[in-house]
Design brief:
By secondary structure, the chain is α+β, with helices and mostly antiparallel strands. The protein has a domain of about 110 residues: Sandwich (Immunoglobulin-like). Helices cover about 60% and strands about 15% of the residues. A four-stranded antiparallel beta sheet has the order 5-2-1-8, with no helix packed on it. Helix 1 packs antiparallel against helix 2. The chain is rod-shaped. It starts with a strand and ends with a helix.
């Protein structure tokens, strides 16, 4: 990590709730960047900030401009700030509002004290985890590796301390110096251990956050599935309604066709009755004409009858017994026979007219 550095062009508050870092990375060839974190220490204590997602995935190119933003709350003041973009990519930033070169801080590998219980191993990651969850697990593994290295160094320091105590009879001063150095190394290991434990706790917190985000995403997916099923049910109900409407339309069309057939039948019957009516009207007109002719003949017969009666008044009375019968003029005899015939014809014509009128009335009632 000797070549790793960040040339900071700008490190300042872009707004009251936003802190930005702009610079250019060097010595990062072959390195993988994770979601950046900013460890800030000041008068109010230490806190860790997680980068905003505005510049995700924060991949850097050698010597090119690189930007990251962090959320901020409280007064705009801080002490030392360490920027971490991976388990082994950590640099100490200059003071806010100034530019400079950010280099990796001096970090001693910690080692826990003897007898300290090791944290329980985390469960194996599930397949197809989100990038944030993978990053959290990678940081957890890095912290665990640092913890193991710190424990190994602590054991070495204890061995050196024992060796120094064994050689105390030969060179007490040298043993004390070695013991002091071993004690310093132990203190440094404890400090590094504490930092590794804090990093592991942060990794667990980020893991829980990632799990919560995954559960929320699963809930969103389940909600979408429910909405899709409801939409499918609505579509099937609409299809059933359409089928019922089609059936109703088919029934309506069948009833319409039946009504059309009935209307056509009624029209045909009406036309037939109209034709019969016209025939009856024609027959009535014919009979009416014949009746008028018969009436004229009757009137003529009556006139002839009256004339015969007038002529009969002039015929002498019958002769006495044994006298010859009176002579009747031939004209009178001829006129008597036709008058009787004409009366019969008039009666027959009247009966026919009555019959035709009855037929017409029956036809009109049937219409």
């Amino acid at each position: 990590m000797a070549d790793l550095r960040l040339e900071v062009d700008r490190f300042e508050w872009a707004s009251e709730d936003r802190l930005e870092v702009v610079g250019r990375w060097h010595g990062i060839r072959g390195r993988v960047f994770l979601r950046p974190t900013l460890d800030v220490r000041g008068d109010a204590g230490a806190k860790r900030l997680l980068a905003l997602l505005d510049h995700k995935p924060w991949t850097a190119q050698e010597g090119e401009e690189w930007i990251v933003a962090f959320p901020w709350s409280g007064p705009q003041a801080m002490g030392q700030a360490d920027l971490a973009v991976g388990s082994d990519l950590i640099v100490t930033l200059p003071e806010p509002g100034s530019a400079g070169v950010a280099s990796p801080p001096e970090i001693l590998v910690p080692e826990p004290e003897a007898g300290e219980p090791e944290p329980e191993p985390e469960p194996d990651p599930e397949p197809q985890e989100p990038p944030e969850l993978q990053q959290a697990r990678a940081e957890r593994d890095t912290a665990a590796g640092a913890r193991d290295a710190a424990q190994e160094q602590w054991r070495k320091s204890q061995e050196e301390l024992e060796e120094a105590r064994a050689q105390a009879g030969d060179d007490l001063g040298q043993a004390r110096a070695q013991a002091a150095a071993a004690d310093e190394r132990r203190k440094a290991a404890e400090k590094a251990r504490d930092e590794a434990v804090a990093a592991a706790d942060q990794a667990r917190s980020e893991l829980r956050t990632a799990q919560s985000e995954r559960e929320f995403a699963q809930q969103q997916i389940q909600g979408a599935e429910r909405r899709r099923e409801e939409a499918v049910g609505s579509r099937e109900e609409a299809a059933r309604e359409l089928h019922r409407a089609s059936s109703s339309r088919s029934e309506a069309e069948s009833e319409r066709d039946q009504a059309v057939d009935a209307r056509r039948t009624a029209e045909s019957e009406r036309d037939e009755l109209a034709a019969k009516h016209e025939e009856a009207v024609a027959a009535v007109e014919t009979l009416t004409a014949e009746r008028d002719a018969l009436r004229e003949q009757r009137d003529a017969a009556r006139s002839e009858r009256d004339e015969i009666r007038e002529q009969a008044k002039g015929i002498p009375a019958p002769a006495a017994k044994g006298a010859p019968p009176p002579v009747v003029p031939p004209a009178v005899v001829r006129s008597t026979a036709p008058s009787r015939h004409q009366g019969l014809r008039v009666l027959a014509a009247g009966a026919l007219v009555v019959l035709v009128l009855v037929i017409v009335v029956l036809i009109l009632r049937s219409l």
